[in-house]
């Protein structure tokens, strides 16, 4: 009896550890998400200007700048860490003069997400930045069908499948701003890893299962955009 109890305890501990390891990190921090579309002929200049991050940021250097390769109509997305809270004032935050003639339009949304340490690790920044310069990022935004928000969040929070090749994943939730509720970023070490992931996903779809079908049970709108990293 003792040996059976010991075995059951070991099995329970194994699965408990597995659940703890795959549970998504708590969304404790606030981030500012800025989608920008360059004015005609100004794409390169806008990209260079955005590399400086948010002026007077409360967390200097805590941002990632991604450049559109294929997908939605925006050219750049900047995701800036603001700490565990932020404050807006009536004066607002006027854009720097250097940006006034470079952008056709932009959209701002505040979201919650994991700690900066977790975000940096998943996105291949910090000490990893030099080794992950060739990373590919898929930026997605989602709006749930009415009454399906909890189910959509559960789907987006689920651990990646056995054949997924992403090296990092982030889930963020809308606080104020755009007409979407969740933003995800998946990082792949290379275009080859991304292609392998898509090949595996299509094979699963041919069997009538997988994330493609799961999302379509709960999502009213979403976009996926392939990007590369410009900064840091």
Word description of this protein:
This protein is of the alpha+beta class and 232 residues long. The chain has helices at 2-22, 43-50, 116-122, 149-157, 191-205, 211-215; strands spanning 29-38, 63-70, 76-83, 103-113, 136-144, 168-176, 182-188, 219-231. The chain has one domain: Alpha-Beta Plaits, CATH 3.30.70.100. It is 28% helix and 32% strand. The protein has an eight-stranded antiparallel β-barrel with strand order 1-3-2-8-5-7-6-4, surrounded by four helices. The N and C termini lie far apart (58 Å). Mean pLDDT is 88; it is low at 1-21.
Descriptive tags:
alpha+beta; 8 strands; 232 residues; Alpha-Beta Plaits; 6 helices; disordered N terminus
The CATH architecture classification is 2-Layer Sandwich
Taking pLDDT < 50 over at least 5 consecutive residues as the criterion, the unreliable ranges are 1-21
Query: Number of folding domains?
Result: 1
Q: Number of DSSP strands?
A: 8
Output the helix-strand order.
Answer: HEHEEEHEHEEHHE
Shape: globular
Going across the biggest sheet, name each strand in turn. Answer: 1-3-2-8-5-7-6-4
Q: How many distinct helices?
A: 6
Helix content: 25-40%
Kindly estimate the percentage of residues that lie in beta strands according to DSSP.
25-35%
- Structural class estimated from helices and strands: alpha+beta
Query: On the 0-100 scale, what is the average pLDDT?
Result: 88
CATH topology: Alpha-Beta Plaits
Distance between the termini: 58 Å
The CATH class turns out to be: Alpha Beta
Largest sheet: 8 strands, antiparallel, barrel
Rg, nearest Å:
20 Å
């Amino acid at each position: 009896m003792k040996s059976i109890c010991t075995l059951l305890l070991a099995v329970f501990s194994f699965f408990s550890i597995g659940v703890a390891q795959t549970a998504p990190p708590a969304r404790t921090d606030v981030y500012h998400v800025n989608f920008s579309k360059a004015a005609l002929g100004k794409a390169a200049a806008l990209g260079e200007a955005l590399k400086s991050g948010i002026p007077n940021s409360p967390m200097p250097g805590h941002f990632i700048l991604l450049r559109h390769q294929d997908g939605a109509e925006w050219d750049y997305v900047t995701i800036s860490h603001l700490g565990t809270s932020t404050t807006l004032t009536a004066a607002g935050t006027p854009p720097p003069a250097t940006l006034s003639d470079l952008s056709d339009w932009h959209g701002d949304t505040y979201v919650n997400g994991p700690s900066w340490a977790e975000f940096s690790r998943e996105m291949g920044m910090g000490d990893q930045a030099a080794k992950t310069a060739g990373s590919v990022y898929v930026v997605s935004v989602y709006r749930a069908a009415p009454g399906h928000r909890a189910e959509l969040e559960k789907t987006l929070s689920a651990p990646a499948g056995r054949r997924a090749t992403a090296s990092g994943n982030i889930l963020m939730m809308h606080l104020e701003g755009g007409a979407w509720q969740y933003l995800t970023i998946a990082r792949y070490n290379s275009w080859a890893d991304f292609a392998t992931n898509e090949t595996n996903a299509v094979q699963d779809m041919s069997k009538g299962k997988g994330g493609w079908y799961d999302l379509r049970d709960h999502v009213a709108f979403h976009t996926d955009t392939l990007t590369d990293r410009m900064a840091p």
